[in-house]
Amino acid sequence: MPDTEQPGRQQHRQLSAAQRRAVSELLRVSPVADELARRFEEAGFTLALVGGSVRDALLGRLGNDLDFTTDARPEDVLRIVRPWADAVWEVGIAFGTVGCQKEAPGGDGSQTRSGSDNQRFQIEVTTYRSESYDRTSRKPEVSYGDTIEEDLVRRDFTVNAMAVALPAKEFIDPHDGLQDLAAQVLRTPGTPEQSFDDDPLRMMRAARFASQLGFEVAPEVQAAMKDMAARIEIVSAERVRDELNKLLLGAHPRAGLKLLVDTGLAEYVLPELPMLRLERDEHHRHKDVYEHSLTVLEQAIDLEQDGPDLTLRLAALLHDIGKPRTRRFESDGRVSFHHHEVVGAKLTKARMVKLKYPNDLVKDVSRLVELHLRFHGYGTGEWTDSAVRRYVRDAGPLLERLHKLTRSDCTTRNKRKANALQRAYDGLEERIARLEEQEELDAIRPDLDGNEIMQILGIGPGVAVGRAYKHLLELRLENGPMEHEAAAAALREWWAVQEQG
């Protein structure tokens, strides 16, 4: 007979392990946390570690960013922390948050940037509060509370609605967040409808935590997300973008993205993503572009070497968003997507601009989308050296990311085809490496600079110099490096033709 008590015992063991991790983590931060708590206590106020800090302590991953909550109003918090902290900032004070920095003796041998054995803590102290939106405002209205229970019930999820009162280290968990943490499920302290009405961005946070923590989202929470998805429009583009970034940079972005699509949130946040679920029928078969894109994203993540790369992940997710606009049914039953990379680059730029991404990031991601098909003209290696040089020149500083994106874009189940593509790209990278060694491809420029062009042709600054420079660059790409005299002769030959014209 199956052991019906096994799940309960397993969860009990998970809780015990979580509690042991929390004790270890809290002991590490105790010197600075207890010292700060005593200052609040002496001033007649309470202080508790709260939210993500408690959750991460229970998960054994508490860093040096500590979140506290208090019954003290912001002006009182400033009065308490200013004589104690190494630095204080008031950026979030309109929302009841005071930030500060404190260096304290380290208990784990870790070193700060200064080389000392001290730990540098980034601390935020927030007055008990609740946030809500009205139907016309994009900014949350802040009202202060008087009890920690009142504060916790208005937090986003039960796993973030736990606190540890200091310095007594009393664990406060009125909404069974510890149980949900052990079960790896996201629920809201109150009703999800009330929670999402207070702050619609919490719907995005559900998807973000699904990505970061790998947790399941409770069915009633998903149902509320579906019913209230349109409410996300009241939130500013910048806040939505920041949550989307955190989702994409998480360990399980597929889970978060699928939640956005399945609940309808993506229709308002990133509508190009659900549009990739193209209808297919028995007569016009093509790969599932939506699932393909999620797989490409995961394969790109596997190729990351120096931590999460937002540029690469965005490009991998969006590389095929031009396909719905360019789909054509051919007479032979095939489906084509001609120039979808060009259309996709334009759509990528438009969406990222709407989400208020920095210009440089918009430029890089849309450029990668535009270039992601270029390799498929390589075939079995018949590209000339000139074509390889142009590939490198067009990719510029994005070349390494383009390598990863192109390799990730192979999701075929045909092992022979997949191996052929990988061998072909291996060959291209080897050719690039050889040419780089010979010609410094990362700094391709004409063999003559502007001053030399003017001297040889006997002309002054002007449009003609630019045209001559461009001609010499084309020669450089086509033929490789030229000796100075050969380049000068080629320039004079070109100039003679221009004068005759």
From TrEMBL:
Cofactor(s) required for function per UniProt: Mg(2+)
Protein origin, superkingdom: Bacteria
Stored InterPro entries: Bact_CCA-adding_enz_type3_sf (IPR050264), HD/PDEase_dom (IPR003607), HD_domain (IPR006674), HDIG_dom (IPR006675), NT_sf (IPR043519), PolA_pol_head_dom (IPR002646), PolyA_RNA-bd (IPR032828), tRNA_adenylyltransferase (IPR014065)
Domain HD, first and last residues per copy: 289-405
Gene3D superfamilies, A to Z: Beta Polymerase, domain 2, cca-adding enzyme, domain 2
Pfam families in the cross-refs: HD, PolyA_pol, PolyA_pol_RNAbd
PROSITE patterns in UniProt: HD
E.C. no: 2.7.7.72
Keyword Transcription regulation: no
A GO term for molecular function: CCA tRNA nucleotidyltransferase activity
Keywords: Magnesium, Metal-binding, Nucleotide-binding, Nucleotidyltransferase, Transferase, tRNA processing
Protein name: CCA tRNA nucleotidyltransferase
